[in-house]
């Protein structure tokens, strides 16, 4: 446990070699990366941490923002004594954090892998951020008062995992312990509420702060189907790679939780930067 920006965070550092930071998507925990860590740790220093309120980390006092999460990556590296550049892997919504980290801390970034990353929408959300944050916190508080996290939290996590992955992946021993807490359920609700605002942040930052001249790979998950939705997603991911001047790679067969379905593809993307 490390205190970063005043918040006790659960941080893991494994292996030795060039630093790689693994950032999970909305509501995810450190153990979602286990298969990727096993592949990278022999020749990389692999760093992963639970964002505030998630996994084993304490909650933060304010709502999450893309800039704050990008700064958090830099401050975790500082706390671990890694002043040099690091490769950052951002999955789903954490692709926002990885990209903003590169734009705000260009000298700290060695490369980016955006793993089935969320896409930035330039349209501004309708509700003020504070209103949506308060609403999400209120819903989470009511659910906690009713005892729903303890009763349904782990079940909801398993349902989401099964929907996002193609293969059967057994529950991690810590899954039930963490997702039955009101702290984690509240953090998930707040991250979900913050998603459109973080997307707007990224879209607004792109014309203001250029990416540093580092390699970028957009790794898109593809389950093998031919539905318009799946094909459109691949094209939008390809468009993201073009916009960022990066390489477009498809991980197949894989669902959105590609670190579970295709950990070798994630590790290979890091090594091939």
UniProtKB/TrEMBL annotation:
Q: Which SUPFAM superfamilies match?
A: alpha/beta-Hydrolases
Under Gene Ontology molecular function, one entry of this record is: hydrolase activity
Q: Which domain of life is it from?
A: Bacteria
Which segments of the protein form a coiled coil according to its record?
Answer: none
Instruction: Please verify whether the record's keywords include Hydrolase.
Output: yes
Q: Would I find Hydrolase among this entry's keywords?
A: yes
For the AB hydrolase-1 domain, which residue ranges apply?
Answer: 20-269
Q: Which UniProt keywords apply?
A: Hydrolase
Q: What is this protein called in UniProt? A: Alpha/beta hydrolase
